[in-house]
Amino acid sequence: MKITRIYSTPIRIPLRRFFYNSQNAGTKREWNGRLSRVTPKRPGPILEYVLVRVETDEGLVGIGEAPADIGFFGQTVEGIQVAIDDYLGPQLVGREPWDIPALMDLIDYRENSSAKSGIDVALHDLVGKARGVSVNALLGGARRNRIPVAIEIPGGSPEDMANECLKYLRMNVRAFKPKIGGIPKDDAERLRAIRAAVGPEVSLRADANRGYSPDEAIELCELAEKYGVGLELLEQPCEAWDLPGMAKVRNAVNVPIEADESCFGPHDAEAVVRAGAADVLNIKIGKAGGLCNAMRIAAIAEEAGLQCVLGTSFGTGVKIAAKLHLAAALPRFTGAVEFTELGLHGPLLKGEMDRALSLPLDPDGCLPVPDGSGLGVELDEAKVAAVML
């Protein structure tokens, strides 16, 4: 079997509201470029993705997905589409699909992690289908078949953020990650309000999105401990490049520190480990450049005695399924896996999996790992056509 074509389909999904709003959260600056989604070309709240298909001479097709977010990944939907259709995909046409790491090495150019991740996921789906096994089997086998779900909570007043958690709690979500990163004492009040609302049994972590100086991050952690909010970890408290600052925070507080923007690919993971900058590495398929690199980061973390988190990068049901298979195969990860997109739009899938990978969750607060070959999901082409660019 040989690859005959790799091509992309960009889509744009309208949202009811902007999910990230640094001004509401009280941040000192519009960090992370989140509001850069608002341009004359994109005047309203949206999420954009690029669907990827790998076709073969035997008629089998693998599906993948690449997240487009200039604010986080630094990659636009237009750039991802061109990278896949004109540069990365053609390098693999005419080749057999079986050795996915070798194929990904052929397109391991600098940058373009999102575009590469879409091809990687599609190759895993294709090879799984061809061999009659699930993607998690290609990654080493399933260690679990249900994955606990966490949801990010956008910034706002303490009351608004607590109420947002309660909304999801009624949908059986049992883990939350509020967005903070502004004034430590105000953020600590937000965390205290959330904990008071959801009770002691719910998982609570927080994401500063690079918003603090090292001293401010230390202050936030000390206040969280003083208030007894039970903060499980603090994600990316300082600038991505400030590994010494991250290490300073880590060495000064009892709250585990997580590297997200500091940890894109395996080389970043190794740098974080060398600097002693984090207790936890955040793995995102789009950030890592695919499932192959995601597994490499997990191996680096395990060797260093660190934990992993599987974070939010948004996605349709294709990306949700890929993350579920990754979570099923990993030896270990910390707490729940983040699926914030569940609260923003539907998965665009056919059949039962469209409902299974949606809110509300089952009473155990988990999503099922899709069974069947490959990713175990199929796109609903009518739904996709309705949001195509």
How many structural domains? 2
Low-confidence sequence ranges: 22-26, 29-33
CATH superfamily of the largest domain: Enolase-like C-terminal domain
Q: What's the CATH C level of the largest domain?
A: Alpha Beta
Count the E strands.
Answer: 13
Q: Provide the structure class.
A: alpha/beta
Mean model confidence by pLDDT: 94
The proportion of residues forming helix, as a percent range, comes to 25-40%
Give short descriptive properties of this protein:
five-stranded parallel sheet; single chain; alpha/beta; five-stranded mixed sheet; Enolase-like, domain 1; TIM Barrel; 389 residues; globular; 15 helices
Lay out the secondary structure.
Layout (H helix, E strand, L loop, with lengths): L2 E12 L7 H4 L20 E11 L4 E8 L8 H16 L7 H7 L6 H19 L3 H4 L7 E8 L4 H12 L5 E4 L5 H15 L4 E2 L1 E2 L6 H13 L7 E2 L7 H10 L4 E3 L6 H10 L4 E4 L1 H4 L2 H14 L2 E4 L6 H13 L7 E2 L13 H5 L9 E3 L12 H7 L2
Parallel strand pairs: 4-5, 4-12, 5-6, 7-8, 8-9, 9-10, 10-11
Antiparallel strand pairs: 1-2, 2-3, 4-13
